């Protein structure tokens, strides 16, 4: 049975630069926002906080839902549903080790991101940046977490 992969990402901009990660995927260096899968029992917002910390060593507090993105890997049945967030970047803990496969966290302008298009992990990277720059944003309240509402 087909099931999409539920993922999150943090779209973080500071002084015209976006926080990205360089990660090694099947031997190739790829660029992506801090992103990853939602774990069982975890809220979507908490997943975004955790993934950002694990991949960049920065704390991150989502303050707005940027959008939901769907992408199917060409030639496969692997589909990703990406919940993108913007928010407030906190401190970096340089003593933390980054997730396996993450080579570095780096700050790039949109032009620098476009210039490295051949390294994008997916077309979602630039779509999220462009939507952020266009001001796309929704209150976190549009997300309803019934697991937590029931408690």
Structure notes:
The chain is an alpha+beta fold and 151 residues long. The protein contains four helices and nine strands. The chain has helices at 44-56, 110-115, 124-133, 146-149, and strands at 5-10, 13-14, 17-25, 28-32, 35-37, 58-72, 79-92, 102-108, 138-139. It has a five-stranded mixed β-sheet with strand order 5-1-7-6-9, with helices on both faces. Strands 2, 3, 4 and 8 form a four-stranded antiparallel β-sheet that branches. β3 (17-25) and β4 form a beta hairpin.
Q: Helix- and strand-based class?
A: alpha+beta
Number of helices: 4
Give the overall shape, derived from the CA principal axes: globular
Report the CATH topology name: Nucleoside Triphosphate Pyrophosphohydrolase
Return the CATH class.
Alpha Beta
Q: Main sheet: which strands, in order across? A: 5-1-7-6-9
Please tell me the CATH architecture by its name: Alpha-Beta Complex
Integer-rounded radius of gyration = 15 Å
**How many β strands by DSSP?**
9
Order of helices and strands: EEEEEHEEEHHEH
Q: Give average pLDDT, whole number.
A: 95
Helix content: 10-25%
Largest sheet: 5 strands, mixed
**Count of separate structural domains:** 1
Gap between N and C termini? 31 Å
